[in-house]
Design a protein that fits this description.
Layout: H1 2-20, E1 30-34, E2 43-46, E3 53-56, H2 69-82, H3 90-94, H4 97-109, E4 114-118, H5 121-128, E5 137-142, H6 147-156, E6 160-164, H7 169-178, E7 185-191, H8 203-213, E8 221-226, H9 240-245, E9 251-255, E10 265-269, H10 271-280, H11 282-285, H12 292-306, H13 308-330, E11 342-346, H14 350-362, E12 365-366, E13 368-370, E14 381-385, H15 392-403
Parallel strand pairs: 3-12, 5-6, 5-7, 7-8, 8-9
Antiparallel strand pairs: 1-2, 2-3, 4-10, 9-10, 11-14, 13-14
Length: 404
């Protein structure tokens, strides 16, 4: 059989990854959640580690909503009413009232005319970008953009691709100026909050630069942002990098699977843009949507976020992130200043990163080490992530272990 010849090649590839320190390795399996007590937040039980209870510092659930009682109740009510799955893609018979209600809420939340749900933010980027990129399009991208943007651009096969150094607005300006008249359309695409570092794109500067060069392209310059780590965790009211920078882009992609605590991705824009995507985006047309129950829970998450509790949670994660950054700096660790709940420890060495991850694990703390090729060589780090169900005691515990 063909696999008899293929499997040794795959095994060799995995061995090479392990030797380089880039193998992700075995996934830990969560078997239970222990509620917080004595001033500490919840702990997680892992298969194979007995009754050890771990503090999770590597979750994207920035507001802690996945364990919120209102979220659980909203999803349970929708399951009772609609069942466990949609049973079809949207245009056949898979559109349920919770999907429509959530799209309306998301559009209103972002101040847009319309929204479109997909199965994940990765699928949303892959489904959206190629619909606006063709053989007459120049694509300009930040060097640290997420893998989904990189692969979406590859799939789209634009006339030309250009990458500017991370957050280098002067280079973005030069790229657009030097390509004036070389393509009918330009597409400038960036992460909002960069997932590995917690820093943010200066969307106000990006949109201003694009406006200056707009007339040089017959079909204009399209601005696209994937703000999956920003929405719900960043900005005064949790509306992400747009709110933080006071800017507005043409297409905004985000996720329901991080701060909003559920699953799925979405894009918001004008009514004509969303109508066009419903007819053309294959990741929407040919893939089942999130379940009606997930949509109902996500709608509840928006209600929590836009209410008084949402403001309290945002204040809490900002305060805890500031506490963690200050503590790391006091201990002599290199980090990146900012307001986002991603707080990296810049280790800049693969072996040292792995050793520190193990050290924290030995002290019942779950963190993620990021090494090449996930991050550039020399930028190896540990990504700590603050969540709404963490406490000051949790942060101080992490700092105490690092101090040792």
């Amino acid at each position: 059989m063909a696999l008899d010849k293929l499997e040794p090649l795959l095994a060799r590839s995995l061995a090479e990854r392990k030797a380089k320190g880039t193998l992700k390795g075995v996934e830990h399996i969560v078997t239970g959640v222990v509620p917080g007590k004595d001033g500490f937040g919840p702990r997680y039980i892992l298969a194979g580690f007995g009754d050890r209870a771990f503090l999770r510092m590597n979750s994207n659930s920035y507001l802690g909503l996945a364990l919120h009682e209102r979220m659980i109740e909203a999803e349970a009510r929708a399951v009772e009413r609609f069942g466990t799955g949609p049973g079809a893609v949207r245009f056949i018979s898979g559109t349920y009232q919770p999907h429509v209600d959530l799209e309306r809420k998301l559009a209103a939340f972002h101040g847009r005319e319309a929204a479109l749900l997909m199965s994940a933010a990765y699928a949303t980027v892959m489904g959206v970008l190629p619909q606006f990129i063709d053989s007459d399009t120049l694509v300009v991208s930040d060097a640290l953009n997420h893998n989904c943007i990189i692969n979406a651009v590859r799939l789209a096969r634009p006339a030309k691709k250009a990458v500017y150094a991370h957050l280098d607005m002067s280079e973005l300006d030069r790229i657009l100026a030097s390509n004036a008249g070389e393509a009918k359309r330009a597409c400038v695409v960036t992460d909002g909050v960069f997932s590995m570092r917690g820093d943010q794109a200066p969307l106000d500067e990006i949109t201003a630069i694009c406006e200056r060069h707009e007339q040089a392209f017959d079909e204009g310059i399209l601005t696209v942002v994937d703000d999956s780590h920003g929405v719900g965790a960043f900005g005064q009211s949790g509306r992400g990098t747009e709110e933080f920078t006071g800017a507005r882009v043409d297409l905004l992609v985000a996720t329901l699977g991080k701060a909003l605590g559920v699953n799925g991705g979405y894009v918001v824009s004008t009514g004509p843009v969303i109508a066009y995507l419903r007819e053309t985006a294959p990741f929407y047309i040919y893939s089942n949507p999130i379940t009606p129950a997930e949509a109902a829970a996500a709608a509840e998450a928006l209600d929590i976020l836009t209410g008084s509790e949402g403001g309290e949670l945002l204040d809490k994660i900002r305060s805890l992130a500031a506490r963690l950054r200050a503590g790391l700096e006091a201990l002599g660790f290199d980090t990146i200043r900012g307001e986002h709940p991603i707080v990296p420890i810049l280790v800049r060495d693969t072996d040292k990163t792995a050793a520190l991850v193990q050290r924290l694990f030995d002290n019942d703390i779950l963190v993620t080490g990021l090494v090449y090729p996930v991050v550039p060589k020399g930028e190896e780090e540990i990504r700590l992530q603050v969540c709404g169900n963490h406490t000051a005691k949790d942060i101080d515990h992490v700092l105490h272990v690092l101090q040792q």
